[in-house]
Amino acid sequence: MINVMKPGLLSTIQDLGRYGYQKYGVIVSGSMDPLAHKISNLLVGNDENDATLEMTLMGPMLEFKETCLISICGGDLSPTIDGKPVPLRRSLLIKAGSILKFGACKSGCRSYLAIAGGFNVETVMNSKSTYVRAGIGGLNGRSLKEGDNLKAGTLSKESENMIDYLLPYLENNDFTEIDWSISSEFISAYQQKKTIRVMTGTEYDSFSAESREHFFNEPFKVSAQSDRMGYRLEGPSLHLEKDFDMISEAVAFGTIQVPSNGKPIVLLADRQTTGGYPRIGQIASVDLPLIAQAKPGEELTFTMISHEKAQELYIDRERQLRHLKQGVALKFNS
Amino acid sequence: MNYTLRPLGDHAVVIQLGNSIQQETHEMVKAVTTFFETRTIDWLVEYIPAFTTVTLYYDPIKIIESYKPFQSTLPYTIVCSEIEHMLSQLTILEQSDSRIVDIPVCYGGEFGPDLEDVANHNHMSIEEVIAEHSNGDYLVYMIGFAPGFPYIGGMSPDIATPRRESPRLKIPAGSVGIAGEQTGVYPIETPGGWQLIGRTPLKLFKPNNDDSPSLLKAGDQIRFTPISFEEYKALEEEQ
Fold this sequence. Notes:
The structure holds 2 protein chains of 2 kinds. Chain A is of the alpha+beta class. Chain A is 19% helix and 28% strand. By secondary structure, chain B is α+β, with helices and mostly antiparallel strands. Chain B folds into 2 domains: 85 residues, Gyrase A, domain 2, CATH 3.30.1360.40; 139 residues, Cyclophilin. Chain B is 26% helix and 28% strand. Chain B is built from 6 helices and 13 strands. Chain B has a 7-stranded mixed beta sheet with strand order 7-6-13-5-12-9-10. Chain B is elongated and about 70 Å long.
């Protein structure tokens, strides 16, 4: 069991999202950075979709009541265990009674804490993801509060084997780790000076030539009015060549829509299921972690990618994840 | 059946069935939705019907696994040819009958603070507005915007009223409102600028009902029935 001593700025339980209910208007939610979410799960022997804790800018302070296998991926919120710095993207065994604390945000915006067995909260409509606005999923439909208790689910064979492997090293330490490294391809997602690959959106051709030119050449800044639902961007104003009435239809994670004020909005994990604003672009799935890890004030530029190429890159990324999963299984599931 | 296909990002495809909001297009949307609702398709994550489109979310990896001989073919291309094959079997006859859902509404009072404004705007009495609103044949074109929120067509233009100039920060769940020529019901408490004319005790969003968390679905016909405050309270307790 884990006791929440301080909740942090916005810490919510998330899995990969509540799919299957968008036809009822139910928001998907899920981890903003699905890549970091998946890697953190794989490193502790979990299923990719198991629930992790998404922590934003200022992380929580957590007391581990029992010895647990964990991993921390995504943005670097300076995690320490009993004062000692903890590496990211490792499988860590943390000793009962230790305190995991997060400090300054050194890179990225969101960090993911996975625990072997996954965070055990009620499943609502097939998902454990928290959607705060409707008060569903996660821990009582809300972000963590001081005094909350978090529990882990049932351990997989791999998790058990990893714990058995690490236990002897824990004797004189607060934590110990498996010293393996993650492919650098996975880490490049958190670089500064972000160039994000974007497919042209459904209404791209209806934007003025100047707006289309600006969209792919000028930098945009993430505004302070940005959250899990969407990022508002500041930059050159984007306009249609000629106004027309849009008919609402489905939008997706990474859809970039432009209301009549000309300021683009990137739709993210807590987006509405449907939208009625013209869509200038659609972020390639593989680059969603880049935007999810961008902080307010950060600059982004967009570069065009074909829909075919975006899908190929996604397939490559999933293959790499599968290799990681097989690597863990090879070592700890025999 | 005439339609076009286009990608929405690298995980979804949009089946476009028309270009304007009308009954005929809606019937096609309903037929396509019913088709996917009644079949188990491994790669299909979910479908989202709207006014003129049905969007299918798919899993590119499952497609690659299911169609191994076509490994060099893009999942999107495979999905499109699958959809074309499936829709060629579809006749417009394949559709479920419309459900008729009764929505009891307590009009006016504290539940409908804008009812008088709506009446004044349209030079009608409050009673006439209620009669007009509860007399319409309404159709749910789609669910979107918020969990369980229905986009409803069929309101009489005689009671159309522009949105409030300054939106309210909190609109209680169940509120029935008018915005321009649209009418709608708020399933959860949200901010909003609709003119509020009444409230229903029914819960439009039931997150604990995994099978159908939304009272309404696209294609439903609805009727608004006026009820008294006492009836409202009684129904609210039953919920």
